[in-house]
Design brief:
With 256 residues, this protein is an alpha/beta fold. The chain has a single domain, classed as Aminopeptidase (3-Layer(aba) Sandwich). It is 33% helix and 20% strand. It is built from seven helices and eight strands; from the N terminus they run αβββαβααββαβαβα. α2 packs across α7 and α5 runs antiparallel to α7. The radius of gyration is 17 Å and the shape is globular. The protein binds zinc ion. The site of zinc ion has 4 residues, from loops.
Length: 256
Amino acid sequence: MWGDHGVRGRRAIFISCAAILAGCAGAPLRRDAAVPAPDVGREAFVAGTSVEGREIPCVVLGGGPDVCMIIATIHGNEAAGTPLVHRLEREVLIRPELLSGRCLVLVSVANPDGMATNRRTNVNGVDLNRNFPADSFRPTRRHGPRPLSEPESRVLRDLVYRYNPDRVVSIHQPVACVDWDGPGEGLARAMSGLSGLQAKRIGSLPGSFGSWVGLALGRPIITLELPRSADALDDDASWDRYGAMLVQALVWPRRL
Ligand SMILES: [Zn+2]
């Protein structure tokens, strides 16, 4: 999966930037060192702000070289992933062995303005999940005039560059399936088996976060589409039904 020299070169650059920019849990990143002992360090910070100035929060747990990034609510009216991300943070603090050799990067709300008004787009009317620099990007009013034209998209871009994730999960609704881009099929099928949600390729959509991470960067990315009925579940019931998929994503073997 890493045979492309361009990707490998970018990876080296990312590692260097990550080390400079302070690592997980305030400790230097040990990206390619031997698997370290569990590190339950927690760093919480504001990764950036939305068009209307709302904070986009990020929590980083652990300090290992194997990095899993999970984001929720890039579409503001698909918010069932946000409590799941919060719950996953609690879970790894209770079960620190899950972080052995790993680093977990959590963005609980990627589109806070959309979430505040229960709409898909940001306040500029741009679908953030069409605003990334994939080859498929097409400038439209809905996609934005250019890739990364929106501050919320740039926040995610910066986090991907900073933490250089080995795999990514982006939680959506309401299609009720586990979609993937890039080398993510194995993880998608494993998550499907834990949830009953069908593993299914929706197809790479223009300028999507999945197209950029999966195809342009060559990293496994799961677009986890929860059903609309997830809105009716309380946090415990939602975790009971869907939480195992997120734990699976966290512990999925690196670089298969
Ligand atoms: Zn969506």
